[in-house]
Design goal:
With 431 residues, the protein is α+β, with helices and mostly antiparallel strands. The protein is built from 13 helices and ten strands.
Length: 431
C-alpha cells in the first residue's frame, strides 16, 4: 500500500495520519523525495525529484488520533482533555504508526532510547492538540456535509490505487487493500466515515482561523532565507551564526543538506546483484563470482542489461525496474559500490564489485555534474516553504491558546509514567 509519511524535515516527527487519514485540501505538498535504490545498500537515502526537491511537509496534517466513540469503562486511559478521554490503546496504535514510518525511512537503524522517548512524547502531545481542536470545532458547530465526507473518503481510497512504484492498481485490488487496512485498524466502515468527518471538522476550523490569516510570503523574506541557506550549504558550521535562534539553526542545517544533495554531482546507474549467503565457503563465493562474470559477458556481447537484471538480479526491488537505481550522489551507496560507479565511463560495464551484499556488475547511463545553487531555480519552492513556516507558527499559537483554556490531565504518562495535572500554561501543555 502506498506509504503516507507525515514527518517534518525541520522539526520533530509528527504523528502519522496513516493511509486512512484525511489531508487538508490545499495547499498541495510538492512530492520531493523518492527512494532511489532498494534494500541492500547503505540506508535508504532519498534521491531528489529533478523538478521539485524541497520536502515541504511542514503543512499541518490532521491525524488518525482523534477518538471515535467512548471505549469500555475498564480500558486504560492516558489523558483527558476537558473531561474527554484519550485511551491507552489509541495512543499505542499511533505510536506504532510513528515507529513503523521511522523504520521505513531508516531501514535497519536502531532507535535510540532518547529518540523513542521523544517520539512517544510527541504522539501524546499531538493527540492532545487534535482533541482540543476537535472540541473547538464542535463548540462552533461547524457543519460538514455528506458530500464533503464522500470526497474525503474518495481521496483516501485514491491512495490505494497506485503501488509503491506509482503503478496503477486494479480497482478490485485497491478496494481489497482499502478494506484490509480498515480491518488492520479495527475500524468498521461507519467508524471510518466518522473519523473522516471529525478530521474534516478540524481542517475547516484550521482553514478559517489560521490558513485564511496567513498571506503569501514576501519577496524580501524569501530572498533573506535563501541567502542564509546558501551560506549554510557552503559552510555547514555557519548555521549557528546566521540563524536567529536554535530552532532556525536546526531548520537551516537540515534544509541545507537537501540543497547540498540536490546540487551535488550525481549519476544514474543499473546493476545486477548476486548475493553471497552468510557463511558462504570460498567455493560458493567462487561459483557466484563466475556466474556474475558470465552475465557480464552476455551484456558485453549485446544482451540488454535491463533484461539481464530482471532475469538474474537478486536485488528484487531494482530488478523490477531492470536494475535501475535512479540518480544517486556520493555518500548514498556503500563505499566499494560508490567508488566503482563514479569511476565508470558512460555505458561501460564494470568488473564484478564485491560488497557486503554480494557481487555486482554496474553500468552508468547518465552523469550530471555538480551545479551552483541558483535562486531562480528554487524561488517557487522556497516561497511555499516560507509561507508554510508562517502558517505553522500561527497554528502553534492558535493551538496554544486553546490549550491554555483547557483542563488537561495526564492520568498515566506513558513516557515518564507519572500522574500529573497540567491546566493552563505550563511546559507539557504547550510543547
Amino acid at each position: 500500500m502506498p506509504p503516507d509519511p507525515r514527518t517534518s524535515p525541520v522539526g520533530s516527527p509528527r504523528v502519522l495520519a496513516g493511509p486512512l487519514g484525511a489531508a487538508p485540501p490545499a495547499p498541495q505538498v510538492p512530492r520531493a523525495l523518492r527512494t532511489a535504490f532498494a534494500t541492500g545498500f547503505k540506508g535508504d537515502s532519498p534521491a531528489l525529484n529533478p523538478c521539485i526537491f524541497l520536502f515541504l511537509s511542514t503543512i499541518y496534517y490532521l491525524l488518525s488520533t482523534i477518538p471515535l466513540y467512548a471505549a469500555e469503562v475498564l480500558e486504560k486511559t492516558v489523558a483527558s482533555v476537558n473531561g474527554e478521554t484519550i485511551y491507552l490503546s489509541d495512543y499505542e496504535s499511533n505510536v506504532g504508526n510513528v515507529l513503523e514510518e521511522l523504520k521505513k525511512t531508516n531501514p535497519g537503524a536502531e532507535l535510540s532510547p532518547t529518540r523513542l522517548r521523544d517520539a512517544r512524547s510527541n504522539v501524546l502531545q499531538q493527540m492532545i492538540d487534535d482533541l482540543v481542536l476537535l472540541q473547538e470545532a464542535k463548540r462552533r458547530s461547524l457543519k460538514i456535509y455528506d458530500k464533503d465526507v464522500e470526497s474525503g473518503i474518495a481521496e483516501v481510497k485514491n491512495r490505494f490505487k497506485k503501488d509503491d512504484l506509482g503503478r496503477p492498481v486494479p480497482e478490485a485490488e485497491s478496494e481489497r487493500l482499502f478494506m484490509a487496512e480498515l480491518k488492520r485498524q479495527r475500524l468498521s466502515y461507519g467508524d471510518f466515515q466518522e473519523r473522516i468527518k471529525k478530521q474534516l471538522m478540524v481542517i475547516k476550523l484550521v482553514d478559517a482561523e489560521v490558513r485564511a490569516r496567513v498571506g503569501p510570503a514576501k519577496d524580501d523574506e524569501v530572498k533573506e532565507f535563501f541567502n542564509k541557506l546558501k551560506k549554510v550549504v557552503a559552510k555547514p558550521a555557519s548555521a549557528a551564526q546566521v540563524a536567529v535562534n536554535k530552532e532556525e539553526e536546526e531548520e537551516l542545517t537540515k534544509l541545507a543538506q537537501l540543497f547540498r544533495d540536490r546540487t551535488a554531482e550525481r549519476i544514474r546507474a543499473r546493476h545486477v546483484l548476486l548475493k553471497i549467503p552468510a557463511g558462504a565457503t570460498m567455493v560458493e563465493k567462487s561459483k557466484t563470482l563466475s556466474r556474475i562474470k558470465e552475465i557480464k559477458k552476455e551484456a558485453e556481447a549485446g544482451a540488454d542489461f535491463a533484461e539481464l537484471a530482471e532475469g538474474h538480479s537478486q536485488d528484487t526491488e531494482s530488478a523490477k525496474r531492470g536494475g535501475d537505481l535512479g540518480y544517486f550522489i556520493r555518500g548514498w551507496m556503500v563505499p566499494a559500490f560508490e567508488a566503482a560507479a563514479f569511476s565508470l565511463p558512460l555505458g561501460k560495464i564494470s568488473e564484478p564489485v564485491e560488497t557486503e551484499f554480494g557481487y555486482h556488475i554496474i553500468v552508468v547511463e547518465e552523469k550530471k555534474a555538480a551545479t551552483p545553487l541558483r535562486f531562480n531555480e528554487v524561488e517557487e519552492d522556497l516561497m511555499q516553504y516560507v509561507q508554510q513556516r508562517g502558517f505553522q507558527k500561527k497554528l502553534k499559537e492558535f493551538v496554544s491558546k486553546l490549550r491554555e483554556k483547557a483542563t488537561i490531565k495526564i492520568l498515566k504518562d506513558p513516557v515518564a509514567d507519572s500522574a500529573e495535572k497540567f491546566p493552563g500554561d505550563n511546559k507539557l501543555n504547550n510543547q
